[in-house]
Amino acid sequence: MLWVFLLPLWHLKRLLSQGAGLAAQSRFVPVAEALPWPRWVPGTGSPGSLSFFGLDFVDPMFTFSVWASKAAQPGLFAAAFVGVALVLVLGRFFCGWACPYLPLLAVSQATRRLLSKLGFPLFDVRLPRWLAYTVLGAVLLTSSVVGVQLGTLVYPPSVIGREVFGALCFGTFTTASAGVGLAFLFDTFISRAGFCRSVCPGGAMFSLLATASPLRVVNERAKCTDCTACDVICNLGQQPMTNQLDAGCERCGRCIAVCPTQALAWRLARPLVARSEKGET
Amino acid sequence: MNRRALIAMAATAATARLLPTQARAQSPARLRPPGALTEEAFQRACIGCFRCAEVCPVLAIRFPRTFSLESALPFIEARERACVLCMKCTQVCPTDALTEIAPQPDVVAASVRMGEPVLDRSRCLPWTGQGNCRLCHTVCPYADRAVEVVGPAAAPFFHREACVGCGLCEEACPPDVHAIRIVPPLASPERER
Q: What is the pLDDT of residue B49?
């Protein structure tokens, strides 16, 4: 359950840097100067584009979307290299570890559990897998036609990042939050983590690159008691119990943490390319 | 599934590049941060990551509050908080929607054109004989080049070609006077003047 602890750290760093910004904005200069900002904080930026200890990370979806919009400047691919390389190795880890939608998703899951305890009927509509890829393609295509990066308007990390920044530094929220709210309602009442699983264009981009990732959760069947705890805890509909994982696995490790017999473990294995023809939809 | 999706994605991106370029806007509706590409290229290249806004030491860079296609594009509201020309934002932009500009006064003067000053003399205090204000001249980083005081009333006179459009004068101009506005530049090919 390491992610539970890592996630607040990520946000704490941002809160620190932006809280100092808030102090500067309020012209409460002594506080702003007392806080070791911004030199102490080794990183700046949103989840969509982060500079951390001198390394640049740019979300692969934005990299390709800017390229598809014929707007790529020479520096873009150098800046995007680290991010793409990380995804090629670690797969869709961003979704499971760093996405700022995760706290909202946790609330959504808790709401679902509560509702089911209270006896409300819960829907879990399984949307087809290709939907996310279609959304991604539509974002690439229409961004180029319209001339604005539409990913910035529909991709939760991008939207939430700006909302948090605006709230902390200017005390404002924008109507752009409404889209994230819709995703939250969808995930809570219609389909479990359905937005992440089958709508989010950034997640689709990660899934595509994750095809080459060698990092996988593997079930040693000899230790497995077929209790299905891992299948149940997975937000994205993966089935680690029967080793039926695809590139959609977000490497969050919750299945490993929940396994009562330690049957699941991280393994470096051959990429999933050859195994991806399960015909999952 | 994934191999097919990869091919489809590559084909989509290639198609997107072949589609005709639709120019959304030749000229920005608001001031863009320094070093911005032409408005059309800027809108294509900006990914709304707000790194520029986060490194801004005076928090001059902000985002629209209402949802529209331009929700994620940063702008400067000079009257609220003007740019201090530190050029930090130009150094962190990952997509180079803001091209890097060295933070030296001469380089900044030569390459930054965020907007152009428009003075309403019917509101300006010295021009209307209401005293000896000169706030705009005092705060201007390029005083005597971009704005000089002229005549017996020491009234401000702006030189558009020397003004970088940082908006410090608009911010300094007394709120109930508000004689100066920095308007976004019209689409001009000589941006890198």
A: 87
